[in-house]
Structure formats: structure tokens, C-alpha cells
Amino acid sequence: MLKQLSLCSIAALCPVIVHAQMYATLALVHGHVWTENPAQPETAAVAIAGNRIVLAGTSAEVLRLAGPSTRVIDLQGRRVVPGFNDAHVHFVPGGQGLAGVQLRNAASQAEFRNRMASFAKSQPDGAWIVMGEWDHERWTPAVLPTHQLIDDVTTRNPVFVERLDGHMGLANALAMKLAGVDRTTPDIPGGVIVRDASGNPTGIFKDAAMTLINRVIPPLSLQETETAILAAEREAARNGVTSVQEMANDTHDTGGPDRLRAMQALEREGRLTVRISENLRLRDWKYLADSGVQAGFNDGVIQIGGLKSFADGGLGASTAWLFAPYDDAPSTRGLASDELQNPDQMYAEIKGADQAGLQIAIHAIGDRANRAILDFYQRVEKEDGPRDRRLRIEHAQHLTAPDIPRFAQLQVIASMQPYHAIDDGRWAQKRLGAERIHFAYDFRSLLDSGAILAFGSDWPVAPMEPLMGMYAAVTRRTLDNRNPDGWIPEQKITVAQAVHAYTVGSAYAQFDEKIKGSLEPGKLADLVVLSRDIFHIDPVQIEDTHVDLTIFDGRIIYDASAPHHQ
Questions:
Q1: What is the spatial distance between Cα 411 and Cα 390, in angstroms, rounded to a whole number?
Q2: What residue spans define the domains of the chain?
Q3: Quick one: which of 352, 491, 357, 361 has its CA closest to 421?
């Protein structure tokens, strides 16, 4: 039986009391519960009252809290972990993309064209075809597509489909016409318009140049945004994701307020089944500051106070900003972002946001981009003095040896997406070469140096599947099956470390570790039941593990055994 003091301390949070006895509303027993509580890392059972954990202990202890209306679930030895917190997603675009053209696994230009043609036939005249998530590295040869590949099968629809990393897209001739882009259109800082030998745009626009097309694509309506969120939260529930941290899509992403309106509308209607942290653009910091919002402001479901910025592009687009030229493109070292093209202005925005008490998260992939942001963060701490900032670098993919320990020294959170390692690992070495590749996706080195890792997916750039992210971090077996013992195997981490990064690490990264991330009395009842015990199987089998139950706010929101979830 729980001590009376502990019962009273949580009674206000979970008022389920009958005759002075608190009963659990949900009890999970006879399992293996990984609590993430260092004082009690593993138990057999957990009791929930309302939307809070009331006890993690033995099955006998939990069953003593079972009343007449308690739902008791016999885990039969299954593994329970805290609900996964995806520290980096593009939630609305991901939900929108679920209903769009699917190009991610198109294995050739011909298949790409055929899928575009088929999808275009299903669309009304004039409707934009966007998203797509194509990957030319799957093709032989790995050449970029051009608008001529799809023009004659998309005559009725403007097209701007993005590569899966979101750092370049392909526009058809109609889209370029609507955008007023032709051979006379000048390049813009932080971006590239790819041109043919005659100087005509090929249809490929990289990084900041993507705004030339994006600016003429109609924004989603409130209803369309809500529909995308609902689709995205179903995908989250299926994968055990109970919290997501939504990141601004680019430096010109003005959709944050519209996303917040849609989230609030769904929350009021009781239709939001995922906790969402919305990170607006860095340049929007004054709006938050003027309203008095600071980092971590939230109602338990929706959170604001974080800001997202960009230092460079992506490795797949050869726009990640590097110190040395690309091995397979020696004429370029990538690009500083349009924001970092003016470093003094970018730092002024960082400093203003920091002084307003807001949290800053900056996308940096290349080694030179990571160095630049670490330098900014070191400077702002020196100038503004110590405080609990929880500054973040999103991706932190390619580093130099001297910069790895700086994450811990500066208390900068490395917000990383391990799936990228087994995806990009198919081709990354041809970009970086044999020496630099050993400083890529450095999970182990960062952990060993004392840095805090927060894991996410970057969905829809990669699948919103934490189990696959853990598989990636623990095995580092690339998707092409060419590295059975792991790609750069010295950077593997343990299952426990991967789970921690997807739960406590991610909660810490958003100032929420006191209310979620671990299964302790008083914390939010977000947890996941897995089909296999990932702590005691061959890590290779994590790939074949799935989510049996997802519990959000004390309610089962996904049950793999239910007919409608098959």
C-alpha cells in the first residue's frame, strides 16, 4: 500500500478517491517496466490515476490500488517504457505528406516519373503537388531530376516536390512560370538555382532558393492544418510517440501561428492526443518577447517559447557548410544559410532572444556550421551571464574533434536524429571522404564527453519511428545492408542510452523533465508497451519490434490488437 503522505501529495493531481482510498484507473502488471528513475530503474508494474502515474512497483503493490472500475492489463512479461518524445519533427508537413505523392522509395527516375504521373491524374486541375520526399541517391546514376522528367505528365498541376532532407526541391515548368522564375532570375544568398549549360533553371532549387517557389504555393487553411495534425497524431500514436517538438521548416516559415491556432482548436475539442512544442522562427523572437512568453511556457499539452534558426543546408543537397570542399564536388564547401550570410545580424537576434528568456535551437549539419553556432553560444553566455538556457544544436551531424567536447562544456544539447546515420550512411563517405566521416553522427563521442543527447526523427525527412531510431543508434547498420557490424561502429551506443535520449533527454531539451520522460509518481501517464523486450534481445531484432499499446494522458490511444488498428 502507498504511504498516506505520497497519496495525499498526488491526490490533487489525480482525484480518483473512493471512501478515502485512491484507486487506480489503469494498472499494468506482470511486466518489465523501465522507469528512467535512477533510484528504481526497473519495476514489474505501474498504476495510473487520471492522467498521472501514482505508483511504479511490484505487481502486488499495484494491484492493491485496483478498485471496482480499475482496468487491469496483464503485460505477460512485455516491456514498458516512457512515452517517446520526438525532439525534432515537422509535424504538420508530415501529416500533410501522408496524403500526398509518395516518392521516398522510388528506385529510379522512371519510377519517380510514373508515380508523379499516377498521382497527378488523381488531382483536380490547378492543385499544387508538394512534399514527395524523393531520394536521388537511390538511383543509378545518382543524378538530380529535372523539370523535363515530369513536365508532360503534370501539365495541369504545378509541382514542387522536395528531396527527403528538405534542402532542395524539384519544380515543374508550370510552377516556375507561376513563380516568375526563368534564366534571368538571379541567385539569392544562401541558396542555389541549379542551371543547365545554357543557364536555364533545371527545376532544382536548393535551400534559400526554394523560397522562390514556396512563396506562390497557397498556405494551408485552418481546416487543412487540423486535418494534417490529426493524420500526424495517428502516425505518432502508432509509433509510441506521445510528445513532439515541432520545428520551423525554414527561415521563411510564417506558418507557426496558424499551426498554433489549429492545435489549440483541436485541444479544446479534446482531439489532440500528442503533446506539441511549437518552435517558431528565430526572427519571430520579438513577438514572443513582447507578449511575455519565456522558454517552456505550456499548458501541459501545447508549449511555446522555443525558436528555430538555420546555419546551413544539408549533406544530401551538398549545401551543408564545411571547412574543406566536398570530396565528390570539390568546387563547393556548401552554404551558410541566408541568416548566417549576415553573422552580425544573426547574432543580434540570438542575443535578443536570449535576453528575453527564450530558448534557441539552431540547425547545423556541416562542421563549419556547427563551429559557428558553438562560437555564437559561447559568446552569448559570456556576454549575458550564466543561466539555464538549454541551448540546442539541431542535427549536429558533422563535427571536428575539438568541437565535440564543447557541447558539454557549453551545456549545449545535441538534438540528433539517429535514423539519418543509417540512411545517409549509404552515401555520406563519398561526400566527406575517409577521414572526415569518422566525425559524423558521433553519438558515442558526444555522450562520452558529457553532452546531453535528445533524439528525434526529423519526420517527414525520416520515419517518425523511435524504435527504428534506437535500432540505428545501437546497431548503425545502414539501410543498404552493407554494414552488418555497423557503420563507424565505434559510435554505437547502448539500448538504455538510446531510450534515455528519446525520453528524459528529449524532455530535458524542452524544460519538461519534471513532468514527463520517466515513470515516477506525479508525472504524466504517457507510456508505451512494446512487443519485445528491447533490453534483452539481439539489438538487430529491434527493427522487428513494434508498439503494442500507446498510453497518452492515462488513456490508451493506440492498441495494435484492435481491429481498426490492423
A1: 7
A2: 4-86+526-565, 105-163+167-214
A3: 491
0.70 exceeded by the pTM?
yes
Interatomic CA distance for residues 202 and 175, integer angstroms: 12
Kindly state the percentage of the chain with pLDDT values over 90: 93
Report whether CATH 3.40.50.970 matches the domain 105-163+167-214: no
CA 273 to chain centre: 17
Per the CB < 8 A criterion, the answer to whether 145 and 112 are in contact is: yes
Edge-to-edge strand ranges of the sheet holding 547-552 = 42-43, 32-34, 79-82, 527-530, 547-552, 555-559
Mean pLDDT of 404-416: 98
The three cell numbers of residue 528 are: 508505451
Binned at pLDDT 50, 70 and 90, residue 4 comes out as very low
Answer CATH for 4-86+526-565 from 1.10.10.10, 2.40.110.10, 2.30.40.10, 3.20.20.140: 2.30.40.10
User: Would you say the CATH fold of 105-163+167-214 matches that of 4-86+526-565?
Assistant: no
| CB atoms closer than 10 angstroms to residue 173 | 18
Where are the extended beta strands (E) located within 104-224?
A: 129-134, 159-163, 168-171, 191-195, 201-207
Cα distances (angstroms) measured from residue 393 to each of 43, 154, 313: 34, 39, 14
CB 79 within 8 A of CB 235: no
Question: CB–CB of 314/320 below 8 Å?
Answer: yes
User: 3-state SS string over 80-125?
Assistant: EEECEEEEEECHHHHHHHCCCCCCCCCCCHHHHHHHHHHHHHCCCC
| Identity of the residue numbered 163 | R
User: In whole angstroms, how far apart are CA 328 and each of 316, 367, 406, 438?
Assistant: 12, 17, 29, 17
3-state DSSP assignment of residue 349: helix
Q: Given a cut of 70, is residue 21 above it in pLDDT?
A: no
CA torsion 253→254→260→261, rounded to 10°?
A: -140
